[in-house]
Specification:
Layout (H helix, E strand, L loop, with lengths): L9 H4 L12 H13 L5 E5 L6 H13 L13 H8 L5 E5 L6 H10 L10 E6 L6 H12 L5 E7 L7 H4 L3 E4 L5 H14 L6 H11 L3 H15 L5 H8 L4 H13 L2 H14 L3 H20 L11 H10 L5 H18 L5 H13 L7 H16 L14 H9 L2 H12 L12 H12 L1 H7 L3 E6 L2 E7 L3 H6 L2 H15 L4 E7 L10 H22 L1 H10 L10
Parallel strand pairs: 1-4, 1-5, 2-3, 3-4, 7-8
Antiparallel strand pairs: 6-7
Helix pairs in contact: 3-4, 5-6, 8-9, 9-10, 9-11, 10-11, 12-13, 12-17, 13-17, 14-16, 16-17, 18-25, 21-22, 21-24
C-alpha cells in the first residue's frame, strides 16, 4: 500500500461509482437503468435498507446518470465535469442534505426557495436527503407541497433506514426501492477483490470473519477490514483477525459443539476457558454459539440448507460433517438452553458461569428414546413375561376379569391398532381408535414431520368446524415456533385439507397453572408410558416365577427396567 500520499479509508476509496459496481443490489440497479432507458424517470425516489448497503452511493450514481454531459445514460461516464463534481461533492446543482441535522421547517423552506431556480450548468437540480425519517412533522408538511407539484428541473432522492417513520403522504409520492442486506459470499468476494488490489495476503476464513462482522453491511465490513490492515499491514493471519475484531474462531465453536454432543464435559469447560483467555465477550460468544447451533438445526431439518443459510460453501461442508451423528431434536433441545442463557446474560454478574452451566446442561442431557421404540420394548417384555418357559414350580394362572382384559389388549388385532395409534402420534387405546386432535396431528405428521413434532406439544383448546385453537406453554420454544407466520400458514393449509373446508388456526400461550387445559399428545404419551411401566412392574412383581425366585434366593424386586 502506498504511503506517499494521505491514506484514504477503504469505504471511500472503493465506493461504487457506477451501477455495475454496486454489490448485492443488482435488482435496484437493473430497475433504475430500465427506467432511464425508457425515459420513465420519477420525480422522487425513496431508497430504504440497513446501514452501509449502498443507498447514498446509489443516490450519487443516479445523480450522475441524470446530469452526465454525455446525456441521461444508464451508466455515468465519470469523466465529464458534472460527474467529477458530483463524485467530489462540489456540484452546485446536487444538494446532499443530512436529515438528522437539517430537520426543521425553516431548513425545508430554504430548500424550497432554492429549487425554484433553474440548475446553473446541469440538466437537473437533484436533492438528496439522507436519513429523511429524521425530519420534523412540520418539515414533512412543508416538503409535501413541493412533492405534489414538483418543478420539472428538480429530482428528489430520499434515503432512510426506517421507512415506517415516514408519513404515508410522503411514501405515496415516491418510487420506493428496498436495498437488501449484502450476502456473506458477496461481501467476501468484494473483500477479496480489494485485498488483491491492495496487495494484501489474507485467507478466505479470515475474510469470512471480517464479512460476518459487517453483518450484511458492505461499509461496516470495509471498516473492519481497514482496522485489520492498520494492525497487520500486508500479511494478515486468521488469529490476528479473530483477536482484533473480537469474533469467535469458527474452529473453536466446532470443537465446543463436538464436545457437547460427545458428552465431554472436560472439553466443554476447556473450550470456555479458551474463550475467556482470548477475551471474548461472553454474551457475544453465546450469540455466536446460538447461530452455530441454529445452522446445525437448519441442516438437519431441510433438504437444501444452502438456500436458507448465509454461509460460505466451506462452512456449509464443515457443518454437514458436524451434523452427521445428531438429530434435529438433539440440536433443538440444546439450542433452547443457549437461548435461555443468552437472555440471562444481559443482567448477569457472572456471565462465564451462566454460559458454563448452559453448556454443561447441554453436554449432560440424557438421550431421548423415541416413544414408539419404548412401547415396543415394553411389549416385548410383557410377551416374555407371559411366555416364560414352563418351570417345575410354576403354578397355573387363573384368568381373572382383569387378566382377561389384559389378554384381550394383547390380542394381535388390538395390538396392531394400538401400535398404529402410537406411530400416528396418538396414545394407544384398547379399541385402537383415535381422537379428532390425534387424527389431525397424525395427518400433519404424514405431510410435514417437523410441523407435526411441534403440534404434538400443543394442547387442543378448541377443535370445531372452521377453527382449531392450540395452546402452548408460555415462553416455550414450541410457542415461538408455532407463532411463526409461515408455520401457521402451513398448518392452516393442512387443516383445510384435513377438514375439507376453510379452517382457521389460532395459537395461544398457556400460562403456568392455567386450569382445565387438555394434555398435549407428548404429555399423554409420557403419562401412558409411565402408567404402562408401572403396570408392568406390578405384573413382574406378582408373577409366579418372580415369587418363586424371591422364595428360593431370599431376594426382592427393587426395580424393573426396559432394555
Amino acid at each position: 500500500m502506498s504511503n506517499g500520499m494521505q491514506y484514504q479509508v477503504l469505504a471511500l476509496k472503493y465506493r461504487p461509482q457506477r451501477f455495475s459496481e454496486l454489490v448485492g443490489q443488482e435488482h435496484v440497479s437493473r430497475t433504475l437503468q430500465n427506467a432511464i432507458n425508457s425515459g420513465r424517470i420519477a420525480h422522487a425516489f425513496l431508497f430504504t435498507g440497513a446501514r452501509g448497503v449502498g443507498k447514498t452511493s446509489t443516490a450519487r450514481i443516479m445523480a450522475k446518470t441524470l446530469n452526465c454531459a454525455v446525456g441521461v445514460t444508464p451508466e455515468p461516464c465519470n469523466e465529464c465535469p458534472q460527474c467529477i463534481e458530483i463524485t467530489k461533492g462540489t456540484s452546485t446543482d446536487v444538494f446532499e442534505i443530512d436529515g438528522a441535522s437539517n430537520n426543521g421547517v425553516d431548513d425545508v423552506r430554504d430548500l424550497r426557495d432554492n429549487i425554484k431556480y433553474l440548475p446553473s450548468h446541469s440538466r437537473y437540480r437533484i436533492i438528496i436527503i439522507d436519513e429523511v425519517h429524521m425530519l420534523s412533522t412540520n418539515a414533512f408538511n412543508a416538503l409535501l407541497k413541493t412533492l405534489e407539484e414538483p418543478p420539472e428541473h428538480v429530482k428528489f432522492i430520499f434515503a432512510t433506514t426506517e421507512p415506517h417513520k415516514l408519513p404515508v403522504t410522503i411514501l405515496s409520492r415516491c418510487q420506493r426501492f428496498d436495498f437488501k442486506r449484502v450476502t456473506l459470499t458477496k461481501i467476501i468476494g468484494r473483500l477479496r477483490e480489494i485485498a488483491v488490489q491492495e496487495k494484501v495476503t489474507i485467507s478466505d476464513p479470515a475474510l469470512a470473519l471480517i464479512a460476518r462482522k459487517g453483518d450484511g453491511s458492505m461499509r461496516d465490513s470495509l471498516t473492519a477490514f481497514d482496522q485489520v490492515l492498520a494492525f497487520c499491514s500486508d500479511t494478515v493471519s486468521d488469529e490476528d483477525v479473530a483477536t482484533l475484531l473480537g469474533t469467535i474462531d469458527r474452529r473453536l465453536l466446532a470443537e465446543i459443539s463436538a464436545a457437547v454432543f460427545e458428552g465431554n464435559s472436560q472439553g466443554v469447560l476447556a473450550g470456555i476457558k479458551q474463550v475467556d483467555l482470548v477475551g471474548y465477550n461472553m454474551r457475544q460468544f453465546c450469540q455466536e454459539l446460538i447461530e452455530h447451533f441454529r445452522n446445525l438445526l437448519v441442516i438437519r431439518s431441510v433438504k437444501k440448507p444452502e438456500e436458507i443459510l448465509d454461509i460460505t460453501a466451506a462452512e456449509l461442508d464443515e457443518l454437514h460433517k458436524q451434523s452427521l451423528h445428531v438429530t434435529a431434536l438433539d440440536v433443538q433441545r440444546r439450542l433452547t438452553l443457549f437461548i435461555k442463557a443468552e437472555s440471562e446474560l444481559a443482567y448477569a454478574s457472572f456471565p462465564r458461569l451462566i454460559v458454563e452451566m448452559a453448556l454443561l446442561k447441554a453436554t449432560l442431557l440424557a438421550p431421548l428414546v423415541p416413544i414408539q421404540e419404548l412401547i415396543e420394548k415394553i411389549k416385548l417384555l410383557e410377551t416374555a413375561a407371559v411366555h416364560t418357559p414352563s418351570l417345575p414350580w410354576e403354578t397355573t394362572r387363573v384368568a381373572s376379569g382383569a387378566a382377561k382384559q389384559e389378554v384381550e389388549f394383547h390380542n394381535p388385532v388390538n395390538a396392531h391398532l394400538a401400535r398404529h395409534d402410537v406411530e400416528a402420534g396418538v396414545a394407544p387405546k384398547t379399541t385402537g381408535s383415535q381422537t379428532d386432535w390425534g387424527r389431525f396431528v397424525a395427518f400433519v405428521n404424514g405431510k410435514d414431520l417437523q410441523h407435526g413434532s411441534v403440534l404434538e406439544h400443543g394442547s387442543p383448546l378448541k377443535q370445531e368446524p372452521g377453527v382449531i385453537e392450540i395452546g402452548f406453554p408460555a415462553g416455550s420454544y414450541y410457542l415461538t415456533a408455532a407463532q411463526d407466520a409461515e408455520f401457521i400458514a402451513d398448518v392452516q393449509r393442512l387443516a383445510c385439507a384435513f377438514a375439507g373446508g376453510n379452517t382457521v388456526i389460532r395459537i395461544k400461550p398457556i400460562e403456568a397453572g392455567f386450569a382445565d387445559v387438555p394434555l398435549s399428545l407428548a404429555e399423554k404419551k409420557k403419562s401412558d408410558s409411565e402408567q404402562l411401566l408401572e403396570e408392568l412392574k406390578l405384573e413382574v412383581e406378582n408373577h409366579p416365577v418372580t415369587k418363586e425366585a424371591e422364595r428360593v434366593f431370599g431376594c426382592t424386586v427393587t426395580d424393573v427396567q426396559s432394555f
